[in-house]
Design a protein that fits this description.
Elements (H helix, E strand, L loop, with lengths): L1 E3 L6 H10 L3 E3 L1 H19 L24 H12 L3 E4 L2 H15 L8 H12 L3 E2 L2 E3 L8 H11 L4 E4 L2 E4 H7 L11 H6 L3 H31 L9 H7 L2 H13 L18 H4 L1 H22 L8 E3 L4 E3 L7 H29 L21 H17 L21 H33 L6 H13 L9 H14 L12
Parallel strand pairs: 1-2
Antiparallel strand pairs: 3-5, 4-6, 6-7, 8-9
Helix pairs in contact: 3-6, 4-5, 4-9, 9-11, 9-13, 9-14, 9-16, 9-17, 11-13, 13-14, 14-15, 14-16, 15-16, 16-18
């Protein structure tokens, strides 16, 4: 069981909940803060104080006062009217993350909701009742209003959910689990939808996949080095210490570890004096991507525990301040950085693929073909990789430099962070397929060189890869191989077959 406090949620804990289905519960002291915050809201309502979102309209309607007897209607109308998401739903794992993050944010005790709201959100997480949340429709400021409204619908027994492998009306899933729909009280609708949980949830799932892919990219690159008789000298520790970037130093160290007992790598002057950049500069390029990913991780772990509601309630209700913590700019930047970082892992991978298949750049059979001319071998696999990296270049255009005014110019600058997070996830999927192609080509190259000469660590990767994709003995439908290899990389548990695997 993982305890949520509103202050201490980590990416590692998110991984346990999302991938290992670990249960969650709310810290009692955090719930005490929630109760105090709720008491403050009820006092505001009873005393008829004018506070945004409690007894006023929203956005441009913030100057419209709402009578006490219509406060419940205000919250219900808010959720229904703002549920304007369109397009395909977020992956279930992302929607589950969204529910968990919203509960954690409310546990901070600044939002004025009742404890039952948090309890019900955690019920959804623990019982795998996953809201169907369309991916498109958020500007990434004023919170992820449209996506989070679809999440909030489930609490009131409306909208749809994924439950036990089926997509259904949420009321049916709630009934099957004996959960009663909630009637939203003052401030609660706004508390549920003002936040960055859609972009952050998508970012978390993307980051966890990107982190694994970055590790895999190094191991696959090491195998490519063996297939090309790469020069190991360029990975010497002193070279990278001389520059000073820790991520570059670490990448070089891992490559040296993977190749420490290889009989296929070479030294300067043995076959050639130096390798092309896509080989020689692996630590510099991959290390720079790690720098960006480390930045992304830091921002995600801050945002996971952030109060992103508006208004926020302080000092037992003595201060209720309308601010802008719902603005997604920090995550928008982080997602754009992640897009670029992962796109570059694919870019340099595609250049290594070219070196593996181009007979003008190596001494291997042209296109790794078993019968050059009669059999095309890996020729068009490189085309596919080139297409994917070019698509990534379009997707990597920063979403965060865009903005468009909304709500009659009341909300006149927005982050587009949710678009950035969605595009980052698309780039990760494309990059994984590029690395799958490199893996297929590298395995073929080392077979030609002699598998028995491989390093212990890369040989484990080769054996795992061969469980997914057989050797190329003749031409076949290679798209199936690429998809199997990509799926294998996504599901792979690296620590099971790589010794001393640490960052």
């Amino acid at each position: 069981m993982i305890m949520l406090t509103g202050q201490s949620l980590t990416l590692e804990q998110m991984k346990e909940v999302l991938y290992q289905k670990e249960k969650v519960f709310a810290f009692e002291k955090s719930m005490d803060l929630v109760k105090k915050s709720r008491e403050a809201v009820e006092k505001i309502v009873s005393e008829r104080k004018v506070v945004y979102g409690i007894n006023t309209g929203f956005g441009k309607f913030s100057d419209v006062l709402i009578d006490k007897e219509h406060v419940r209607d205000l919250q219900l109308n808010l959720i229904r009217s703002h549920a304007c998401g369109v397009g395909e739903p977020f992956p279930e794992i992302v929607s589950k993350a969204m529910v968990l993050l919203r509960a954690n944010a409310l546990l901070k005790g600044y939002s004025g909701c009742r404890p039952i709201i948090i309890e019900q959100l955690l019920e959804l997480v623990n019982k795998e009742i996953i809201p169907v949340i369309p991916q498109q429709g958020s500007l990434g400021a004023s919170g992820d209003l449209a996506p989070l409204s679809h999440l909030a619908l489930v609490l009131i027994g409306e909208g749809e959910v994924f439950y036990k492998g089926n997509r259904m009306e949420s009321i049916h899933a709630l009934q099957m689990e004996g959960i009663l729909p909630i009637t939203l009280e003052a401030k609660e609708g706004l508390a549920l939808i003002n936040g960055t949980q859609a972009m952050t949830a998508m970012g978390i799932v993307g980051y966890l996949e990107a982190e694994q892919l970055a590790y895999e990219s190094e191991l696959i690159a090491a195998m490519t080095m063996e297939g090309l008789n790469g020069i190991i000298d360029a990975f010497a520790e002193e070279v990278h210490v001389a520059r000073g970037y820790q991520q570059q130093i670490d990448t070089a160290a891992r490559i040296r570890q993977y190749l420490c007992d290889s009989l296929l790598t070479t030294v300067q002057g043995e076959y050639r004096v130096q390798d092309a950049y896509s080989i020689r500069c692996i630590p510099q390029v991959h290390g720079a991507s790690w720098q960006a990913l480390d930045y992304v991780k830091e921002k995600l772990e801050i945002e996971m525990n952030a109060a992103t509601d508006n208004p926020l309630i302080f000092d037992d209700g003595e201060k209720v301040i309308s601010g802008g913590n719902f603005h997604g700019q920090p995550i928008a930047f982080a997602m754009d950085f992640m897009k670029i970082a992962v796109a570059e892992l694919a870019n340099i991978s595609e250049r290594r693929i070219e070196r593996l298949v181009n007979p003008q750049l190596n001494d291997l059979p042209p296109f790794l073909s078993p019968e050059p001319g009669l059999q095309s071998g890996a020729m068009i696999m490189q085309y596919a990789a080139a297409s994917l990296v070019s698509e990534n270049k379009t997707l990597a255009h920063p979403a965060s430099v865009d903005s468009i005014p909304s709500s009659a110019n009341q909300e006149d600058h927005v982050s587009m962070g949710t678009i950035a997070s969605r595009h980052a996830y698309q780039i990760i999927q494309n990059a994984r397929r590029v690395l799958a192609i490199e893996l297929i080509c590298a395995m073929q190259a080392v077979e030609i060189r002699g598998v028995e000469k491989m390093a212990s660590e890369t040989k484990k990767m080769y054996e795992k890869g061969r469980e997914l994709v057989p050797s190329i003995k003749k031409d076949r439908i290679f798209s199936k191989d690429i998809e199997r290899a990509a799926a294998g990389l996504k599901e792979m548990d690296l620590r099971k077959f790589i010794q001393n695997f640490v960052k």
